[in-house]
Amino acid sequence: MGEIPCRPLSSVKLWFAVAILAAAAHPVFASQAPQTAASPPPKAPVAERKALTLEELPAEKRADILMARGEYAAAINAYQQSDLKSAIVWNNIGMAYHHLFALDEARKAYQHALALNPRFAAASNNLAAVYYGQHEFKVAEHWYRRALKHSNESAVIYCNLGTAYFAESKMKKGIKMYQKAFAIDQGVFAPNQAAMVEGGGSREQRVAINYYIAQTFASAGKQEQALIYLRKAMDEGFRDRKRLDEDKDFAVLRTTPEFQQLLNQENLY
């Protein structure tokens, strides 16, 4: 498992998604040295190594595979049979509960991970995401900030902190965090990223954030992505045609037929 990036979901009502971070996983690889035509045949038959079934794998590896499959309840059971002195294991247990929306259990698991490793940025981020999902935005802000102390180059955490600021109506701070996230990784808002954990947010906040992301993409010359987020803003209720006409970030975008087509489709004349 890798990092699950922060991004808006395709469904508009789920915009306020908060990313969770996975610790390094332990994938199972099968490797075999290639044979060339010049290689001499083996002197004696070589016994083939039997592939292990899922049940025969070590508990943590088995759990990682179950997590990747989305079988979260089974993954929790497998993790609980592995090394419970590992902060990584407890973070992964929390992630599994998080995906099941069992937020209280997820919170306890992340807290256990942090008790084992107080500098574990992924667990701090994930604990913040729990509080965010429970609309305790100020507490979420605290834990995102703590996560950044131990991972200050994470686009995901900057994005999550920005989302928490937006939920608290701290728009300028939210924009600043999004700018930092985008500067680190322009793919942080990409619509083709992995699944997220749902949070919450008002319609006005979703309009503002989608509009800002559209500005960010437009100023970076990524017109297609800018149009995607302008459409999201409009679908949430953005109707300010004058602002669109005067916004310098959209100067180039306004010259494209796709922009005009969007306005026509949204009846924003």
- The number of strands is 2
Poorly predicted runs are 1-5, 7-16, 24-38, 194-199
CA(first)-CA(last) distance: 46 Å
Task: Please state the average pLDDT score.
Answer: 82
Tally of separate helices: 12
Order of helices and strands: EHHHHHHHHEHHHH
Based on CA atoms alone, the radius of gyration comes out at 23 Å
Beta fraction: under 5%
Instruction: Tell me the helix content.
Output: 40-55%
- The helix/strand class is mainly alpha
Largest sheet: 2 strands, antiparallel
Shape: elongated
Q: Strand order across the biggest sheet?
A: 1-2
Describe the structure.
The protein is mostly helical. It is 54% helix and 1% strand. The chain contains 12 helices and 2 strands. It has a two-stranded antiparallel ribbon with strand order 1-2. Helix 2 (72-79) runs antiparallel to helix 3, helix 4 (103-116) runs antiparallel to helix 5 (121-133) and helix 8 packs across helix 9 (203-219). Mean pLDDT is 82; it is low at 1-5, 7-16, 24-38 and 194-199.
Task: Provide tags for this entry.
single chain, 269 residues, mainly alpha, two-stranded antiparallel sheet, 12 helices, elongated
SSE layout:
Blueprint: E1 17-18, H1 59-69, H2 72-79, H3 87-99, H4 103-116, H5 121-133, H6 137-149, H7 155-167, H8 171-184, E2 197-198, H9 203-219, H10 223-235, H11 241-246, H12 257-265
Antiparallel strand pairs: 1-2
Helix pairs in contact: 1-2, 2-3, 3-4, 3-5, 4-5, 5-6, 6-7, 7-8, 8-9, 9-10
